[in-house]
Amino acid sequence: MEPTQLRILAIGRNAEIMTVMQRLLNAPDNWTGLTVTTDEAAKAAFEKETFDIVLICAGVSPEEEAALKAWFKQHSPAVIVKRHYGGGSGLLKNEILHALENR
Question: What is the CATH number of domain 6-101?
Answer without folding.
Answer: 3.40.50.2300
